[in-house]
Amino acid sequence: MSLLTNVMDHSLDEGYAEAAAARGGDGPYRIPGTARGLLTLGAGLALVGAVVTVGAVNAHKAEPTLARERDALIHRINDANGSADQLQRQVQDLRRKVESTQQHALASGDGDSAAVAGAVGLGEVTGPGVKLVVEDAPGTGAGGNVDPRSGQGFSNSGRLRDRDLQLVVNGLWASGAEAVSINGQRLTALSAIRAAGEAVLVDNRPLVPPYTVQALGDGPRLVSAFENAMAGQYLRLLQEKYGIKSTISAQKSLTLPAAVGVTLRTAQPATPEASPSASPTAGLSGSPTGSPGAAATPTGGSSAIPSASTSASPSASPSAGASPSAKATGQTGGKRSPSAPARSTTSNPTTATTTGSPSAATGAATP
Amino acid sequence: MIAVLGLVIGVVVGLFVQPEVPDAVVPYLPIAVVAALDAVFGGVRAMLDGIFDDKVFFVSFLSNVVVAALIVFLGDQLGVGSQLSTGVVVVLGIRIFSNAAAIRRHVFRA
User: Fold this and answer.
1) What phi and psi, each to the nearest 5 degrees, are found at residue A206?
2) What is the membrane topology here (chain B) (predicted)?
């Protein structure tokens, strides 16, 4: 504060006081009397006027230049945005073209490829199925407006966690689901359900509660199979213990979108006598089952995190999938017991593999 | 009389001659203007206080302008030009304000 006080107190140049003191007590001195003094004053004021005027004129002159530069910059930004949009459109066009060409090539090679695409998640599929809606317990900040900083996150036991969702999805696969999507996001063999911070991610895209899991299959039978299986009991337990609400209902017609971000790496016709182990190596825990017909290996690019992935390989194509004899094999990795009261926040990978019987499909995909 | 004449001459010179300001000096012109205003207000206040001195006015004006521009120039070289010019404007602004307040007290007795 002393600096400010100093500035306030000594606003007048001390030279004036000194000069007045040096002159001695010859009375108040206002306008210089001598010609030299007057000339100095005039020259000083002329300089002041010149400096102020030049400054003002200069600022005035610079104004249009600045505006012009600004306009030029805005113009350039708009131009660049336009060309970016155009390139984006081009990308979309090309992507569509690649997709259609791919479909065409697959269709010409194998009649079942559309079904294969549907089975592995590359194509849209429609059919009867079940709809399972799981909702966080009330009062846990559910509803999409969770503040990641203030939210209690998974330490709050009323929230559905990634492992719960993994278990549910695995339960659906095991109960005979042919295709599964979560909140409109199709699961493939390489989909990962994980947690990052506060959010449950599917293929690295955060989900917003409520979680809607849709599964294609024989609706009523799927419902009963799921309810009686371990996953259904688990969900009931979650509801009792933590208030996580879930409703499952059979639907007459569901449409599951195609998975995005999946690139077809290899597509080669397998020889009919190929042994199951000769199928492409997906490099994941989803053990591929060999099959006659086309073997397509979609890989999810960077979205697949092997260390914590829930992978399932539905090898039954919808066309042949009236009764896919699917069975769940192995659920490993630090699972908490459903009855455990403490819900730890550490995320242990739960890996489950669902393998359909190879004989169920003629053109089965092995992701 | 001569004071008004000097001011008028300065404004006329600035307006009509429009001296070409070198590009290197242009950034320091606003600061120089503020420093010049500070000198003028100081001079007027000294006049009203009855301790005006033409030499002090002239020299303080010149040194104010030069020092203010120099500080900002130095700041530009050091990469803190905008901060330093803000500081200079703040200090000179405070001085102008308190001098203007003193002038007001002299003129209006309030």
Assistant:
1) -70, 145
2) Multi-pass membrane protein
Interval A216-262: pLDDT, tens? 888 888 888 888 888 888 888 888 888 888 888 888 888 888 887 77
Chain length of chain B: 110
Interior/surface letters A174-194, b for 16+ CB within 10 angstroms, e for the rest? bbbbbbbbbbebbbbbbbbbb
Return d(Cα A226, Cα B54) in angstroms, integer: 100
Could you tell me the pTM of the whole model? 0.41
Please choose, from the candidates A246, A239, A328, A230, the residue with its C-alpha nearest in 3D space to the C-alpha of residue A285: A328
Tell me whether strands A293-299 and A211-216 are parallel, antiparallel or unpaired.
Answer: unpaired
Q: B31-59 burial by CB neighbour count: b if 16+ within 10 A, else e?
A: bbbbbbbbbbbbbbbbbbbebbbbebbbb
Q: What is the pLDDT of residues B71-93, one digit of tens each?
A: 888 888 898 888 888 988 998 89
d(CA A182, CA A215): 9
User: Which neighbouring-strand residues pair with A293?
Assistant: A270
Q: Report the distance separating Cα B32 and Cα B17, nearest Å.
A: 19
Residues of B in contact with A59 (CB under 8 A): 29-30
**End-to-end alpha carbon distance in chain B:** 27
> Do residues A183 and A135 lie in contact, with contact meaning Cβ atoms separated by under 8 Å?
no
ipTM of the complex: 0.77
Angle at A14 between CA A13 and CA A18, to 5 degrees: 135
- Taking an 8 Å cut-off on Cβ atoms, the answer to whether A51 and B62 are in contact is no
Query: Which of B18, B32, B91 lies nearest to residue A57, judging by beta carbons?
Result: B18
The set of residues, in sequence order, having a beta carbon less than 8 Å from that of A279 and lying 6+ positions away, is A270, A288, A289, A290, A291, A295, A366
Report how far apart the first and last C-alpha atoms of chain A are (Å, whole number).
Answer: 72
Cα separation, A151 vs A148, whole angstroms = 5
Q: Helix-strand-coil percent breakdown of chain A, rounded to 5?
A: 40, 20, 40
Query: CB under 8 Å to A242, separation ≥6 — which residues?
Result: A137, A157, A158, A343
Contact status, residue A367 vs residue A120, Cβ threshold 8 Å: yes
| Residue type for position A335 | K
Q: Verify whether the Cβ–Cβ distance A51 to B59 is below 8 Å.
A: no
Distance from CA of A15 to the nearest CA of B (A): 6
Crossing angle (nearest 10°) for helices B29-49 and B81-108? 20
Rounded Cα distance between A305 and A203, Å, is 9
